[in-house]
Amino acid sequence: MSASARGTARLLSGAGAAALLLPAALLLPAAVPAQAVSPVAYPARPPAADGKKGQELPAMPSSFDPDAGGEGEDVPCTPASREKAEKQDWSRQRLDLDRVHRHSTGAGVTVALIDTGVEAGAAGLGGRVTARGAAGDDCVGHGTFLAGLIAGTGGDSPGLAGIAPGARILALRGTDPRGRASAGLVVKALEEATEARAGVIAIAVALPRRDAALTRAVAAARRAGAVVVAAATPDPPRLGTDEIPARTYWPAGEPGVLSVADMLPVGARPDNSLPTEGIDLVAPGAGVVSGGPRGTGHYLGGGSSTAAAYAAGAAAVVRAARPGDSPDAVTRRLTATAYPADIPQLDPYAAVTTVLGDSAAAAGRAAEPVTVRDTAVADRATGRATVFVLLGSAAVLSVLWAGFAFTRARARGWRPASAED
Fold first, then answer.
1. What does DSSP assign to residue 59?
2. pLDDT tens for each residue of 147-187
3. Does the active-site annotation cover 115?
4. Among residues 89, 115, 138, 235, which one is catalytic?
5. Any idea what DSSP says for residue 130?
6. DSSP states of 337-354 as a string?
7. Would you kindly state where each structural domain of the chain is located, as residue ranges?
8. The pTM is what?
9. 305 given a catalytic annotation
C-alpha cells in the first residue's frame, strides 16, 4: 500500500473510531462531583467529554486554591472518593488499550512521574511505586491519579488499567504540597530521574518561563537515554482562559521534549484549553477516569497533564517492545504512527505494532534522479488519431445529410422547396 493510501486509510479509521466511540463518551458526566473535594481544593472541573449527565464522580484537582489559608496553615487533603466508575471510559477505548496490552505492558520500564507525588499503596499501584523524599505523600492526589493512567492495573476494575500496567513508577515532586509547581523543584526531580536511569520521564507540570537550570536538566536527561514527555500547558485555571494570550510553556518547549496537549473524543481541544504552539501530540484529556491516593473510588480528571501521562505510558510500552530503539526513535515512532489530524492524535497500538520503513533508505531513494519517459512520439500519434476521428465523423455526417436531402427532393418531384414544405 502506498504512503498516501495508508494515510487515507488511517484518516478514515480515525474518523470511524471517533464516530464509534462518541456514544461511549456521551455516557460520561459533565464533571459534576458527587461529593465536595474540600473547601480549599478547587475541583479543576476537567472538561467533560460531553454535556450530558452520566455516572457521577468527584473531580480530581491538579492543585489547591492558592488563596485559601495561610502559608503555615494545614490544607485538608483530597478526600477518598465514595463513587466507583461503572464502565470503561472513552479514553481507554479510544487508545485501544485491550489490544495494546496483548503486545506490550511496559514491563521492565521505569517511568519517572514529576507532579504532586504518588501514594505507593494506592489501589492498583501496590508494589510498583518508588517515591523519593516527600513524593510518597500525595495530599492533592493528582500525581496518584496520573500514575494510575500510566501504570495502574485498575485494581478490582481491570477495565480501568493504565496504558503500561507492567511498568514501574518513580514518584518525584515537582510541586509543593498544595500542587504549586516551581522550576527549582522540577529541576531537582529531573536530576533524580536521570540519576535513577528512568526510561521515560513524564513532567505533568508546565511553567510560564524558561529557566536555564531546567534547560540543562532536560538536556542531561535526554543524553542519559530518557524519553522526556511534558504537558504542553498547565491545566486550565478556574476563571477561564479567554484573556490569556498564546505562549510557550516549559519544559514542553525544550528541544527533544515530546509536548502533549489534551483532546476531546472528537479530536478537538477543549474550549477552555490554554493556547500554545509547538504541540507534538494530543491525547485524551477530558472526562478521564482514574483512582486516587486514598480508598478504592474513582475520580474524573482532564487537562494536558492527563494527556501527557497517557503519552508517557505509550512511550513505556514502545520501549518495552523495542528495547533497542533510541529515545529519539521512540519519539519519532509515537508521532509518525499517530492518527493524522491538525495535531496528530496518540495511537499507542499503532506505535507498538507498525513496521516503519527505513527513513535513511527512503531519503536515499528520494535523492536519486527521476527519469521521465519521453512521450512526444505518442503525443503526436494521439494528435493524428484525434484529427482522423474528427474528419471521419464529419464525412459520415455529410453523407447522411446528402442522403436525407436526396430523399426529400425526390419526394417533391425535384421541385424547389416552398414555404408549404
1. B
2. 999 999 999 999 999 999 999 999 999 999 999 999 999 99
3. yes
4. 115
5. E
6. TSBPSSS-B--HHHHHH-
7. 11-356, 375-421
8. 0.75
9. yes
